[in-house]
Amino acid sequence: MYVIGIDFGHGETSAAVLEVNDELYEHVKSVERIVDNSTLQQVEQESDTCDENMDSPTTEWNAEEIKKLLLKSFYTLKDLKIKGDTKSIKSILCFDWKSQKWDIGPNDAKLKHCISDLDVEQNQYPKLAAYFKGPLVDGRGSEQHSNTLSKITDENRDFFGDFVKNVFYSIIESNTIIHRNPQNFRLYVACPSEWDKCQINEYLDFLQYEGLPCEEVIEESRAAYMSFRDTILGNSIENKDNSGILVIDFGSSTIDFTYYGGKEPINHGYQHGAHIVEETLFNYMISHETTAKKGFEKLTAAAGDNEKLARTLLVYNLRNKKEKFYNDLGENNEAELDDVVLKTIMHPVNGSGVTLNSGDCFGFDDYGYNETKMEEILADYIKDITSDFSDFKHKEGVGNVNFVILTGGASKMNFVRRLTEDVYGVHKCTSEEIENGVKETLLTDDNATFSISRGIAKYGTYRTLSAPIRNAIEYRLDTTWRNFNWVKENLNELISQVVYDVYHEYFCGILDEWVKMHSNIKSDAKKNLNKVLEQIYKDILKKDPDNYIWKCIKEAEALFVPGARSIHALLRVLYDGIELSDKENRDVINKLMQEKFNFMVNELVDPLLKKYISLYFEDESNSNLETKLPEFYEIKIAFGKTEKISLLRNLIEKICSKINSTALRTFNANSLNCDRNYFNGRHLSRVSLSQTIEDVIAEFCHTITPKFNIETISTLCMNCVNNKYEEIKYRCELEPYHL
């Protein structure tokens, strides 16, 4: 199995490949065998066998072995041939009338042939396309993506489609290890970080429509991060605090900024890509250099008065001269911009009547431009990108910048590195400084052409290997925490059970204190209880005037014994408990619901999440699996008069029955106020009586009906679980361990 990453850049295109160890791939695929835990009641039974079922029968999950196999796979990373033996091509397209095929990234000789050796009588005309890449739909803008980028023209869309299709087929033809039937690879492609979700999805559909079996489109800044991660971690950025990292992808079309410093990356792109440099040079030379102006006019005539073709050719060649200029400047600290010799880039079109001589050029009246002159010409452009750098620095959510990753082909321009250091306070070390232990905080790639495609291949490898685990997690979530009916049913049962447990423990606690004679009797308890009992008297004695039990209770009011020892005292405390319990138990219910909710998540989802994390992280201490717990304060208990009277009535009648069956005397007016000696001396202990009272309490607790909005609580819980998974996905994709 191979993973391919392709960077269809605005200016250049490259590709990289990474071979995934077969044993490793089979290892992670085994996790797709999972058990559908469909109800809460199954959780405890299946939790012991859940992990075993996930891993069997292929192999047992071994995180250490996976890391070794993954490291072995990463050693295979290499650049792919795009065309013949060439591993990077210019993102241009021209039509070869002789072969009747599009030619991708032609060299100078082939480009010259395609646009010059034409038979006008056969209606052959130059077909050349450059700078055609761009979003395929208009940007909509969002909190994460503020772009309002307009889509490319229909003509450029067609050019773009022909280009990606021909590049892909050329890669297959140029690399014998890659083949389509049967397909032995997974393909990933990058896009500018500024593109929004709709633009990314449209790009994925576009690639698939053109015949590319693309798995996913990722942001170029993330690919750059993946490419640089080893360097970053080598500079002491720990996984657990991987923040304050800024990725600047300085490309031909845009400058994309991505800041990693919080839960979500902050992306923004600016429309000041390096293509403006060659366009600025072209316009300046036309206005200030007579030689350049005459050269443009002659090339236009040689192209059959096709000014658009002449301009495209000259701008494209100025780009090549610009790249050579900044490469020379970086290597030698001095450079000079060369002129463009016209006869080297095209033959005159048949019938044009133009002859191109060796002295004809798009060049300079005196000398080529040095560094000072170049920066003078580009002063407005440098001012614009300085504004871009400063603007992003002050965007909301962008905090301290500890490291800058500067990538993209245009990052080699010396003023870009200088500007990055000035605005963000980072430093590119000399070799001597590195030897002396100076910390380098500006990270650049000397081979920026391949950094994005290599990062895509690395990213794609993690995504390919984690796909079976993610599929298993998605399936588990879809059958449980994303299934609204499942959540409602299980939460209904859970809430009822929690409420019962809380109130049963609460009332039994009161009973236990009474048995131990530690009850805390409130001063107004007698008054509160008497008021309720009066209502019971009226209800019962009106219908049954001779009711012996309640006549005794009525008489007992006159014999009231203060303190904590009597049955009367217990009734008063239980009654006060009903009045106070809702307020006192709200926190208890919330805490217990959170514990139960967390248990359900742990049993149903976390075993899979741990496997997911172990693929990415070397140290499990970095795999924080804590769930953000929802609040359950919406669950409320409101006891009405009926519930209160029912509890007291049942308690008194059951106590009466117990006294009659156990004591040497029958229930009478003194029974409610009997003291400690009466219990101990008449064979009726508080302990033996407490079981009867506890049975009544249990029966009462089963009748408690909590009030809550199940839809609201279910949605809250579902979001908590899904957010946990999304956060772990984000962390895994951003922060795999140092290999």
Number of helices: 24
**CA radius of gyration:** 39 Å
Strand tally is 16
Indicate the mean pLDDT: 80
In terms of structural class, how would the helical and strand content be classed?
alpha/beta
Helix content: 40-55%
Poorly predicted regions: 34-59, 233-241, 675-682
Shape: elongated
Percent range for β-strand residues: 5-15%
Brief write-up:
The chain is of the alpha/beta class. The chain has helices spanning about 20-30, 40-55, 65-75, 110-115, 155-175, 195-210, 220-235, 275-290, 290-300, 305-330, 370-375, 380-395, 415-425, 430-435, 450-480, 485-515, 525-545, 550-555, 565-605, 605-615, 640-660, 675-680, 685-700, 710-735; strands at about 1-10, 10-20, 80, 90, 90-95, 100-105, 130, 185-190, 215-220, 245-250, 255-260, 265-270, 340, 360, 405, 440-445.
What does this structure look like?
- With 739 residues, this protein is of the alpha/beta class.
- Among the domains are: 277-379, no CATH class; 484-711, no CATH class.
- Helix content is 53%, strand content 10%.
- It is built from 24 helices and 16 strands.
- The protein has helices at residues 22-29, 40-55, 63-74, 108-116, 154-174, 197-209, 220-234, 275-288, 290-302, 307-332, 371-377, 379-393, 414-424, 431-435, 451-479, 484-515, 525-543, 548-556, 567-604, 606-616, 641-662, 676-681, 686-702, 710-734, and strands at residues 2-8, 12-19, 78-79, 88-90, 92-96, 101-104, 128-130, 185-191, 214-219, 245-250, 255-260, 266-270, 340-341, 361-362, 403-407, 442-444.
- The strands form four sheets. Strands 1, 2, 3, 4, 8 and 9 form a six-stranded mixed sheet that branches. A five-stranded mixed sheet has the order 12-11-10-15-16, with helices on both faces.
- Strand 10 (245-250) and strand 11 (255-260) form a beta hairpin.
- Helix 1 runs parallel beside helix 15 (451-479) and helix 7 packs across helix 15 (451-479).
- The two termini are 20 Å apart.
